[in-house]
Amino acid sequence: MDPLEKAQKEKIVFYLHKKQSIGGGLVFYMNLASAIAELGKYKAYYINIPNADLESRYLNDHIECLDIHNCDLSELEGASFVVPLNYIFDFLTFAQEVRYGRILLFDWQPQQVDFLAAQFPTKRRNICSLLEMFNSRHAVVFMDESCRFSGNRWLANGFEPSYVPVFPAEVTNIPPCYEIRGKKRISIGWMSRLDSDKIQSLINLLEAIKNSQDINEVDLHIIGDGNQKGKINLARYAGKIRFVFTSYLYGEERDSYFQENIDIAVTMGISALDTSRLGIPTVIPIVQMKPFAGDQFVFPYDAAGFSLGWTKDDLASLGYQTYTIGEVVKMVYQENGKEHLGNACRQYCTENFDLANSAGLLIDAIKNSKLTIQDCREHPIAAKQLAGFKRYQMFHRRSRPDYLTYILFVQKLNRFG
Fold first, then answer.
1. Beta strand spans in 148-263 (E)
2. Residue 1: pLDDT above 50?
3. Using the 8-state DSSP alphabet, how is residue 175 labeled?
4. Contact 302, 198 (CB under 8 A)
5. Whole-angstrom distance, CA of residue 192 vs CA of residue 194
6. CB-count exposure of residue 260 (10 Å: 0-12, 13-18, 19+)
7. Model pLDDT, residue 175
8. Quick one: which of 180, 211, 358 has its CA closest to 281?
């Protein structure tokens, strides 16, 4: 009998292969694993490059954290694996010795299907039949409508509408405070990693503030850090924007900082929920890796399908109500504006985003998936991609490269080929 049917306590494995500081995606993953483990019916595992800071936060949550480079794969036989969609091939190379296992692919970023396609040589980038297999086996779940909308560009009939929305990273009991903090200068808070996937969004905000005729002097509080921080040209904005860098803040320290210093939050994803539930008027920017220009911001309650992030093109197609940053400032600083908008953001967050609900939706999606490890290995597109990786490994056997190194090699060839 298939081990999937025999298991008394189903194993659910959350897989990732990414070394980074603690960000929304990692916390999202771990909180889902924790909520599922607490039900008592499932054994939850988290596999990634070790991150002592992250793992220490979940020591008592019954999650078994495994080192991706040193774990016993036999323990994972027959498990259900939750894998970011663009990590499916990395996962297959990791799980070479696992014979049985169900897979649920999680798309939590609007460009994840694009990221998957970019792993292929240019001549073999048509991955539609592979995506069709994933869809026909009910194996893809999305964080929100904008992620699904972006993925639908690859399929004629689109993906099934299956969602597991995000939720606030941490719930503290600080009541909302609607007092205006920017008495003499406008006070805006940006919260996100300053890495390659987010930095252009921040630069676009800076340009929008700089060019706005409705905004005078601004204190811009940047809550976050990352390897792209140096791309912020402080001198370019010195006449209008005063920067306050806090690096990362967590829990009550973060919440207190927002309430004591900030009137408008500009952020996305889980962070947009964290600021909304505090009653801070929150707007979501366009998010994409390449430089762009677009003075367009969306209040969470004006979006649909749990969406909390989008590219410029997708935003135009989704048709959400947008405001310039100057319009947002005017709305917040008019009489009772901060309270009205902050309360609307808080209510929308409370009514639509909840950890227990998302954990239940994820369990349903796992049970509904009919995709197996063997299905993936045998698909012609996957088989060809894995064979290419094996050839690359053999040629570089002394350095023992992993799949992520192979992707960098393929992308380099594509740039110069």
1. 186-191, 218-223, 241-247
2. no
3. P
4. no
5. 6
6. exposed
7. 86
8. 180
Count Cα neighbours of 196 within 13 Å in the Cβ-side half-sphere: 2
Which of 7, 18, 83, 90 has the alpha carbon at shortest distance from 45? 83
Q: In this predicted structure, which of 148-162, 166-180, 284-298 has the lowest mean pLDDT?
A: 166-180
Alpha-carbon distance values, 71 to 46, 74, 97, 102 (Å): 11, 9, 12, 19
- Residue 8: pLDDT band with limits 50, 70, 90: low
Distance CA 366, CA 82 (A): 8
Contacts with 334 (C-beta within 8 Å, 6 or more apart), sequence order: none
pLDDT higher than 80, residue 172: no
Do 226 and 194 touch, CB atoms closer than 8 A?
yes
Q: What pLDDT does 55 receive? A: 81
Contact 85, 140 (CB under 8 A): yes
Amino acid at the residue 28: F
pLDDT of residue 5: 43
Residues in the chain: 417
**Which of 324, 195, 329, 212 lies closest to 262, judged by CA?**
329
Separation CA 120–CA 5 (nearest Å): 35
What are the tokens at 317? 């197609």
Transcribe 66-78 into DSSP letters: EETTB--GGGGTT
Q: Is the pTM of this model over 0.85?
A: no
Alpha helix ranges (H) inside 10-127: 24-37, 52-56, 88-94, 112-117
Neighbours of 296 (CB within 10 A): 21
Tens-place pLDDT, residues 20-32? 666 667 888 888 9
